[in-house]
Design brief:
Blueprint: E1 4-7, E2 10-13, E3 18-24, E4 31-39, E5 46-52, E6 58-60, E7 68-73, E8 78-83, E9 92-101, E10 105-109, E11 113-118
Parallel strand pairs: 2-11
Antiparallel strand pairs: 1-3, 3-8, 4-5, 4-9, 5-6, 7-8, 9-10, 9-11
């Protein structure tokens, strides 16, 4: 079992920046990968960015490439999402997730943090 606590959401003007944090209750080196998903009103939850905890390999959805950066601090059991050049369409609840396992994975979710971008 892993608890995930997100922080850093808020209200920001278009073009601005926010940095989200997700701290895990377990040593993240025991976690295969962590990521950020988002869900806008009336839309399905979508993957935003993902990072493997051991190698630091990253993956992004096309709409955030070049604007968002996912990173990790294994010593702090924390994953970050730096969001720059924010757009109104980035408005959503952002959820942190952690995938535990080696062959079969179990996914854990945080409760989410709201990001609102106004023009």
């Amino acid at each position: 079992q892993v608890q995930l606590v997100e922080s850093g959401g808020g209200l920001v003007q278009a073009g601005g920046s926010l940095k989200l944090s997700c701290t895990a209750s377990a040593n993240i080196t025991s976690i295969a990968a962590m990521g950020w998903h988002r869900q806008a009103p009336g839309k399905q939850r979508e993957l935003v960015a993902r990072i493997t905890t051991r190698d630091g390999l990253t993956d992004y959805t096309d709409s955030v490439k070049g604007r968002f950066t996912i990173s990790r601090d294994n010593g702090k059991n924390t994953v970050y999402l730096q969001m720059n050049s924010l757009k109104p369409e980035d408005t959503a609840v952002y959820y942190c997730n952690a995938d535990l396992g080696t062959v079969v994975f179990v996914r854990y979710w945080g409760k989410g943090t709201l990001v609102t971008v106004y023009s």
